[in-house]
Prior knowledge:
This protein has 238 residues and is of the alpha+beta class. It folds into three domains: 21-53, no CATH class; 58-133, Double Stranded RNA Binding Domain (2-Layer Sandwich); 135-234, 2-Layer Sandwich (Ribosomal Protein S5, domain 2), CATH 3.30.230.10. It has six helices and twelve strands.
Amino acid sequence: MKRRDVKRREEVQVEWIPRTQLGKKVKAGELTDINAILSNNMIIREPEITETLIPNLSTELLLVGQAKGKFGGGQRRIYRVTQKTTKDGKTPKFACTAVVGNQDGIVGVGSGSGKETVPARDKSIKDAKKNIFRIRRGCGSWECGCGESHSIPYAVTGKSSSVIIKLLPAPKGIGLCVNDECKKILKLAGIKDVWSKTKGKTDSRVNLVKACIKALRNLNKFHTNPKHLSNIVEGADK
Length: 238
C-alpha cells in the first residue's frame, strides 16, 4: 500500500460576531465584570462572553463513560457511547461532559453529543461556559474557624435520580474527600477542603455529577444571618 501524505489542518481563528444584546455589550466594553452578569441572573447564550470576561478559565473532562472490558469490567473514559441500529448498520453516538472554572468561586458544567468524538467534546466545553454560576465559600467547620474561604460555609445536599450527595465543611488541610469526578468540579470551583456522604447508585457518574452541581447551587439558596456574611465569599475572593 502506498503511503499518503496527511495534511495538517491549521486552526483558523474566526472573529467573534455577537448575536445577542449581552454579547454586543461585552464586546463593546460596556460590561467588563462577570459578577454583574451572574448576580443579575442574565442568561449567557454565547460561550465567547465567558471567554472574554474570564481569561484564566480552566477546563476538565469528566470520566462519565466506560469501555467494554474483557471479563465484564471496563476502564473509565471521557466518552459515553450509544449505538442506534439502522438499515445501514449500527451508528455510534458519543456523549461527553466537561467542567470549567476559574478556581475562585465560579464553575460550570456542560454536556454535548455528536457522531464523532471531537465535536462532542467541543460542544460540552461550550455548553459548560454558558452554564457558569457563582458559589458561596467560607469556613463552616467548628474544628477550624479560621474565617478563610477554603471550604463551604454550611452543609448542603444535592439529588439526581437515586444519587444523593451531601457536602460538609472540613477544616483546613483535610483536602477534598469526595469522588474523583466531583473532586474535579470542586477544585475548579475553588474549594480546597470538604467532606462528603453519598447514597444511591453512585456508579452512574452522570447522576453523581448532576447531584454535586445541585448541591453547589443550593449554597446560594440559604438565608444567612447578616452577622455571618462577613465570613462568606460569593464568587471571586476579592
